[in-house]
């Protein structure tokens, strides 16, 4: 099967945009990712998928913890910074949730401890045991077909 065709098909699925963050020896590391999903409600588990050559893979293996930060529609530049598409000399600020670094202004911040890791194909799947969650108002940043997008505001019918 043509790899580009597969990639284009998968890119047709609209996803939210997250920044995965972890901390090692006082240094915070982050990366933009859309390979994230909820896995279980009881217990509260999530899954992230990282490519085998991602710098973040080893960082999470070493720290044993991470956060998933679901970005708001006004955080596109932040997504691009953590995707390596935009360079900045400014330090990106982080807050903490249950001892894990989180992105301020993200509409959801999910703190996790690594429960397990599975290697499948050229990616590692991390199962995260959720330890805390913070929610904020806002609309999500969306990514589909290689472009950032925003949700259209819902229109309420009036009688």
Automatic annotation (TrEMBL):
The keyword 4Fe-4S does not apply. It holds the Pfam family Flavin_Reduct. Residues 10-150 form the Flavin reductase like domain. SUPFAM superfamilies: FMN-binding split barrel. GO terms for molecular function: oxidoreductase activity. It comes from the Bacteria. Its EC number is 1.-.-.-. Gene3D superfamilies: Electron Transport, Fmn-binding Protein, Chain A. The keyword Oxidoreductase applies. SMART domains: Flavin_Reduct. Keywords: Oxidoreductase. This is Flavin reductase family protein. It comes from Virgibacillus sediminis. The lineage of its organism: Bacteria, Bacillati, Bacillota, Bacilli, Bacillales.
């Amino acid at each position: 099967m043509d790899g580009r065709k597969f990639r284009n098909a998968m890119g047709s699925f609209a996803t939210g945009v997250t920044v995965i963050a972890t901390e090692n020896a006082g240094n915070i590391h982050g990366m933009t990712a859309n390979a994230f999903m909820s896995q279980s409600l009881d217990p509260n588990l999530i899954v992230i998928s990282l490519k085998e050559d991602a710098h973040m893979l080893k960082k999470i293996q070493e720290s044993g913890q991470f956060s998933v930060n679901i970005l708001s529609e006004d955080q596109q530049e932040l997504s691009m910074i953590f995707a390596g598409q935009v360079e900045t000399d400014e330090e990106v600020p982080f807050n903490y949730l249950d001892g894990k670094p989180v992105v301020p202004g993200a509409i959801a911040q999910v703190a996790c401890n690594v429960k397990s890791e599975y290697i499948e194909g050229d990616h590692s799947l991390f199962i995260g045991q959720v330890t805390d969650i913070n929610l904020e108002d806002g609309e999500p940043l969306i990514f589909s077909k290689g472009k950032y997008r925003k949700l259209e505001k819902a229109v309420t019918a009036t009688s």
